[in-house]
Design goal:
176 residues, alpha/beta
């Protein structure tokens, strides 16, 4: 079994997410038990750093979703775990991250890549030619962008896809 760091490096070497990009505010609606879990987690001091908030948001997202493409995409999330695709994972993760960030000077957005590739090739299935993931921006201590893929994380393939994102992704300053 490959160690997580090696799996993450392997995945980043195999995947590429390319321009054009669309950056969106998260549009997830969270209620029920999941909303209670997010509020409880936001009330703790565990989110002392941006990376803490990323890990907490990944944990809550993976409890709420399991990957699948056999449903219609919808951005309403509640108490029971349900099937989700990359769009739903990205919107839910960004919503949860933004609820947990406290005073970290960071914010999460959803990024849509119109050109997702595996081993340099565009995939033959329309559902996999494009991909959504999250972008965490932080201005402290310096301006940074961290690209997070909660769907890959849930599959045990690591979450940081920063090296797999090519080209320029807008900072989304106008969305704040």
């Amino acid at each position: 079994m490959l160690a997580l760091a090696n799996r993450n490096a392997l995945v980043q070497g195999m995947l590429a997410f390319r321009e054009p990009y669309t950056v969106l505010e998260p549009r997830a609606t969270v209620d029920g038990d999941l909303a209670s879990l997010v509020r409880a987690r936001a009330g703790t001091s565990r989110t002392a750093t941006v990376e803490d908030a990323i890990h907490d948001a990944l944990d809550l997202t993976s409890k709420a979703l399991f990957f699948g493409l056999g449903h219609r995409t919808h951005l309403d999330f509640g108490g029971r775990a349900r099937e989700g695709n990359c769009i739903e994972y990205a919107h839910l993760f960004a919503h949860i991250f933004n609820a947990l960030r406290n005073d970290l000077g960071a914010r999460a957005y959803v990024v849509h890549s119109a050109d997702a590739r595996a081993l340099g090739l565009s995939l033959p299935w329309p559902a996999l030619r494009e991909h959504d993931f999250a972008m965490v921006t932080s201005d402290m201590p310096r301006a940074t962008q961290i690209f997070v893929d909660p769907a890959l994380y849930d599959a045990g393939l690591g979450w940081n896809i920063s090296r797999a994102v090519t080209g320029k992704v807008p900072r989304a300053a106008t969305l704040r």
